[in-house]
Amino acid sequence: MSEQPRNKIWMAVALVAGMQLAALVWMIAGRISLLKSGREMTVEVVPVDPRDLFRGEYVILGYTFSGTGDTSLPDATKRGDRLYATLKAAEGTKWDLVTVTPSYPEKLEPGQAVLSGYASDVWRNSENGRVTGRIRYGIETYFVPEGKGRAIEEMVRDKKIEALLAVSGSGQAAIKALVIDGKRVHEEPLY
Question: Would you say the pTM of this structure is higher than 0.85?
Answer without folding.
Answer: no
